[in-house]
User: Fold protein acetyllysine N-acetyltransferase from Labilibaculum filiforme.
Amino acid sequence: MKNDLLRVATLMKNSHSMIAFTGAGVSVESGIPPFRGPEGLWSKYDPQCLDLDFFHTHPLESWTAIKSIFYDFFGKAKFNEAHRVLADFEAKGLLKALVTQNIDNLHQMAGSKNVLEFHGNSQKLICPHCKTIYLPNEVNLDDLPPFCKNDGEVLKPDFVFFGEGIPEEAYRRSILAAQKADVVLIIGTTGEVMPAAMIPTEAKRAGAVIIEINTEPSNYTNNITEIFLQGKASEILLELEGLIHLKR
Ligand code: NAD
Assistant:
């Protein structure tokens, strides 16, 4: 493991266009569980609350679950050391872009700037009609569902629901970043959710070295990963930060 960490630190130091691709695992140490599995959110809530058709036909039922998951729970989570180290890598010019499948806003709270939100962001609400964006504290979430002040439409959290397309701009910029990347850090994702899962594959096809950090092997591990660093995201990233001498 020590040799692998040293190899990765050297690759990172010599890189010109490194990107990161993150998933739910990076936020597990912030207390946000993945969706699936015995401790996952879908063991407590019905995933149909995030189905687009169901949301339109049952706004109050959907919003009751959404408020509980994304505003009473996600909204109170704090970023962890993994988010913080990635933001520092960017601030030091080492990390050029961060493509995330997460919708919890924790990368941004930790200070990451060039975050490509492949699945949107739960900490913003959007009017599907006039596209006005609201922050959670700008709407009354004690009176559900929340409505747009301009046109009275039911507001929707600004992340991708089941049955909804990927935001075009984030999609386009993620593909471009993947095609330009010379090193990709995949962190805390099973690589099962399409089309997001193909971002590292696209980078590999264009010649990038794929490094993976995860507590368990994923779809990528025996496939496109060149160096697999097994462990918690925060612990591995802190070790890498130490090796690259990027400590503040
Ligand atoms: P996933 O739930 O399918 O997989 C999580 C991965 O993280 C697993 O491979 C697991 O081994 C790994 N992991 C768990 N703890 C870890 C840790 N401490 N350090 C490193 N790795 C760890 O997640 P996914 O692949 O991101 O796909 C799930 C989908 O659900 C995504 O589309 C995502 O948008 C969404 N989701 C988002 C959040 C969030 O915003 N925090 C939370 C749950 C799900």
Observations:
- Residues 23-25, 27-29, 32, 34-36, 101-104, 119, 188-190, 192-193, 213-216, 218, 232-233 surround nicotinamide-adenine-dinucleotide (CB under 6 Å).
- The two ends are 25 Å apart (CA to CA).
- The chain is about 30% helix and 15% strand.
